[in-house]
């Protein structure tokens, strides 16, 4: 209970004759009033307070686990990206190494092919020089071949030339990329052959034209000689 009258107390302690100040209390404070017919249930307030604290704690726990799960998912995704990039780099290095090996093999093969072609050209040049040096004996050799029945026909000569110029493919061990490169080489070689064929055809045309011109000149010269002789004979008869 609260007392409605003001009370004052004085405390005096005798210490060397000194007196302490008085202590004043606040009075007339009314307790909180509830509506008529209601009672203050402290147990219910305590229970609601506990429920609120529990719900707040549960929300914090759920937020914590949700954030933790999100961080773990991001960490797993990051590790996956790192592993994937590492695998991609390893694959790129492997492909580059294989391409380097194939390139070195192609260079070695190309170098070997050029050396063989140079050797064949040198042998062909030597053979042609030998043939030209023995050209004086060509008629005799041709007669001997005719007698022996060993003279080659035009078709046989063409077949022989094709067999000599034919290159072995040897493509069983090549992969798709190397086959494409080989086909390009064959196409370039075929284009070169067509160009050589065209040049030879044009050269043959010029030679035929020169031969016809020379024949006409010889014929004209012979006719002129005959006319001159006839004219001189007629003058003598006169």
TrEMBL record:
Region of interest: Disordered: 1-38
Annotated GO MF terms: tropomyosin binding; troponin C binding; troponin I binding
InterPro entries in alphabetical order: TNNT, Troponin, Troponin_sf
Compositional bias segments (type: Basic and acidic residues): 8-21
One Pfam family hit: Troponin
Alphabetical keyword list: Coiled coil, Muscle protein, Phosphoprotein
Keyword Coiled coil: yes
Biological processes, Gene Ontology terms: cardiac muscle contraction; regulation of muscle contraction; sarcomere organization
GO cellular component: troponin complex
Coiled-coil features, chain-numbered ranges: 68-125
Function of the protein: Troponin T is the tropomyosin-binding subunit of troponin, the thin filament regulatory complex which confers calcium-sensitivity to striated muscle actomyosin ATPase activity.
Record family assignment: Belongs to the troponin T family.
PANTHER family: SLOW TROPONIN T, TROPONIN T
Name this polypeptide is given: Troponin T2c, cardiac
Species of provenance: Hucho hucho
């Amino acid at each position: 209970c609260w007392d409605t009258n003001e009370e004052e107390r004085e405390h005096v302690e005798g210490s060397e004759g000194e007196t302490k100040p008085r202590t004043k209390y606040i009075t007339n404070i009314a307790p909180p009033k509830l509506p008529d017919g209601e009672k203050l249930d402290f147990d219910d307030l305590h229970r609601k307070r506990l429920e609120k604290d529990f719900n707040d704690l549960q929300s914090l726990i759920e937020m914590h686990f949700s954030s933790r799960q999100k961080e773990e998912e991001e960490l797993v995704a990051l590790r996956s990206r790192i592993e994937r990039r590492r695998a991609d780099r390893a694959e790129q290095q492997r492909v580059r190494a294989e391409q380097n090996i194939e390139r070195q093999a192609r260079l070695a093969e190309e170098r070997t092919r050029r050396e063989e072609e140079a050797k064949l050209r040198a042998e062909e040049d030597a053979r042609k020089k030998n043939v030209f040096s023995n050209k004086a004996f060509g008629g005799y050799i041709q007669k001997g071949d005719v007698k022996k029945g060993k003279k080659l026909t035009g078709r046989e000569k063409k077949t022989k030339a094709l067999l000599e110029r034919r290159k072995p493919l040897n493509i069983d061990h090549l992969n798709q990329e190397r086959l494409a490169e080989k086909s390009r080489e064959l196409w370039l070689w075929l284009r070169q052959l067509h160009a050589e064929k065209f040049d030879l055809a044009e050269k043959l045309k010029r030679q035929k034209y020169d031969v016809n011109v020379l024949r006409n000149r010889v014929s004209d010269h012979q006719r002129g000689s005959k006319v001159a002789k006839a004219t001189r004979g007629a003058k003598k008869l006169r």
